[in-house]
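User: I'm putting together a small comparison set for a docking exercise, and I want a reference complex before I start. The sequence is below, and the ligand is flavin mononucleotide. Could you produce the 3D structure with the ligand included, as structure tokens?
Assistant: Of course. I'll restate your input first, then give the structure tokens for the complex.
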Amino acid sequence: MKLKSLEMGRIFLAPLSGVADSPFRRICKRFGADVVYSEMVSSEGLSRNQPRSIEYLRFHDDERPIGIQIFGKDAQRMADAVAIVEEVKPDLIDINMACPSRKIVKRGAGCALMLEPEKAGKIAAAVVGATDLPVTAKLRIGWDETSINALEVARILEDSGVMALSVHGRTFRQGFADRSSWDEVARVKQGVGIPVVLSGDVVTPEDAERALDETGCDAVMVGRGTYGRPWIFREIRDHLEGRSHAGPGPVEMVRTILAHLDFGIAEFGERVATVRFRKHLLWYTRGIPRVVALRPSMSTVATRAEVSGLLDRIFPGTAE
Ligand SMILES: Cc1cc2nc3c(=O)[nH]c(=O)nc-3n(C[C@H](O)[C@H](O)[C@H](O)COP(=O)(O)O)c2cc1C
């Protein structure tokens, strides 16, 4: 899939607030994620110069192509935010119309925009008008099962100049329950002329192949399926290109875990990075029987040496 001169590929890392920060995105890129996205950034926060929002804009060149995802309910604020986002020179700007968080929909942003397709179109037009970068948007399939309108919203966004869409096949009401409806995503793909990226329940290489085949979508995004498994991107690519795929061995696993932590330390400093890393450590070691007794220690690690010590016990003989 291509947007303007930007070659995008077809295996994306989904935007994941609180998970897919710069260190994790860099690791996913190493394993072949074609496109990554920032955590969603508030247009209000950006226009008020809030440090937390500005921090979300940080990325490294090895993450490219990267989309910065913004959310908001006000067209002018969103256009103002674009000017700030442009300063960090991302490859594209993505508009969040999918977030189901109560805090955000209560303010009329995120998935609440699917209740107001015209307003969604105005916001998209304002963002498109404020930049030469490709603008994309991320949707759910609707608000609830009685108001599935992703195709209607998608057409309005296409007319507003949005160059590609990603669609998570659940409604606001579903949150993360039930199966993601790939059929509804396929309906959007069939009804618009711009590329569509499928999001929702792509967890294995076989899922990715099936999603592309069954829906005709141009690309897939992997979200929760990356937790503790950033190598999923390599596995998907190998599978799609007809090669056999196996997960990493213990040495590669330990190297990956420490490289991820080291990116974090370079970004946030050792203590903050290690605390943020705890959940990743639990995910990386999920399902390994001898790990159960070490879980409490994983939840309290605060230094690289502690992480490395735990890894020596979990994966004996892999220390470098
Ligand atoms: C922890 C978490 C954070 C998320 N943050 C965002 C976000 O910032 N922006 C967004 O558009 N979607 C966000 N999503 C939704 C995902 O991008 C994706 O659409 C959804 O998880 C379904 O895909 P999956 O089954 O591959 O996880 C988030 C999902 C999770 C679980």
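The first strand starts at residue 2 and ends at 3. The chain has two domains: 2-240, 250-314.
User: Thanks, that's exactly what I needed.
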